[in-house]
């Protein structure tokens, strides 16, 4: 089996397993493949262009689009497409293939190879803050309680909230959402106004131990009393949703991402959950962050990158022009005019940092990766600020399930919480 065939098989599997709000790109992709079999390279390219427009930044489609340009002697466009793809999918297999043999003798090809090597260099800035050996615990979110110094972690598998007393090194179950009829515990944040309150999102994930098909699309936002270990309020809305990350202003206004629709929701002054922001370029929303002055809200879209929302006007813009650099982001965090992005949807996995200008947009020239290609940071998800340092979950075990969504407990990794200090953010 040739390397190009192996790669195409891998890509075809990847293409079919990615969820999206629109499936037209698969039609264009399949039509393009039929065109190629017939030897119609012009139609192959045109249908791949349509697939790329319908579903941007997909490695399968972009690889084939570059191939289409090459087959039509549009060499410059082929290199441009490969370069964009490698910004977020720096896999050696992209270039180690027979599909682009006619380009391999050029200086531009050598430069692409050099860039891949650079993107895959191991960079280590964050340090392990604490770790747990808890087979079956699947952490997703983490929050810091500034009043007590405790950390709270959410659990996908059993719908638990854990409390970690750092001073004692003691991790203990704090609350079981299943007992209240809810599901996986997702994002979590401590209320800045009411010291007794935690906010948690919960969604029916297939990895949840009690998941049934009847639960599909169920999701809620919970307001929890720490002292009483009870739910003060729950917030839902019609339709299917997957509420994920959550953040709050200093005065307690709540923002939530929904990765399924995708929209940003808010809980307003009337204590009602409402859709607040939506954008045509959003596919799968993940993390949220507020600017220091709370003028801007930042949201991470897993497919297309990070966006800046001007809260008062509702204006939404990509953070940078080459926004594909920032795709695959889960949690995002802003402090002191710098945005940190935990990218678990890139190859290799990495932690990105970019400076923001006076208009709240990113300065591309400042984009760096404090952590990159580390074996011990293989699935960074969500984090929390602690006195200017960012603590984040570095290896959430999403990859340790079988096809039946049962956990592979004998392979379960030691769970690690990392700390990126203020010095490491400079």
Structure description:
The chain is an alpha+beta fold. It is 21% helix and 33% strand. The protein contains seven helices and 24 strands. Strands 1-24-23-22 form a four-stranded antiparallel β-sheet, with no helix packed on it. A four-stranded antiparallel β-sheet has the order 2-3-4-5, with no helix packed on it. A four-stranded antiparallel β-sheet has the order 6-7-8-9, with no helix packed on it. Helix 2 (24-38) runs antiparallel to helix 3 (41-54), helix 3 runs antiparallel to helix 4 (59-71) and helix 5 (75-88) runs parallel beside helix 7. The relative contact order is 0.10.
List keywords for this structure.
426 residues, single chain, globular, four-stranded antiparallel sheet, 21% helix, 33% strand, alpha+beta, 7 helices
Concise structural overview:
Residues 1-11 and 17-21 have low confidence and may be disordered. With 426 residues, this protein is of the alpha+beta class.
SSE topology:
Blueprint: H1 3-17, H2 24-38, H3 41-54, H4 59-71, H5 75-88, H6 92-95, H7 107-119, E1 127-132, E2 139-144, E3 150-155, E4 160-165, E5 170-176, E6 184-190, E7 197-203, E8 219-225, E9 230-235, E10 243-248, E11 254-258, E12 263-267, E13 273-277, E14 285-290, E15 296-301, E16 305-310, E17 316-318, E18 329-335, E19 338-343, E20 350-355, E21 368-372, E22 383-386, E23 389-393, E24 415-420
Antiparallel strand pairs: 1-24, 2-3, 3-4, 4-5, 6-7, 7-8, 8-9, 10-11, 11-12, 12-13, 14-15, 15-16, 16-17, 18-19, 19-20, 20-21, 22-23, 23-24
Helix pairs in contact: 2-3, 3-4, 4-5, 5-7
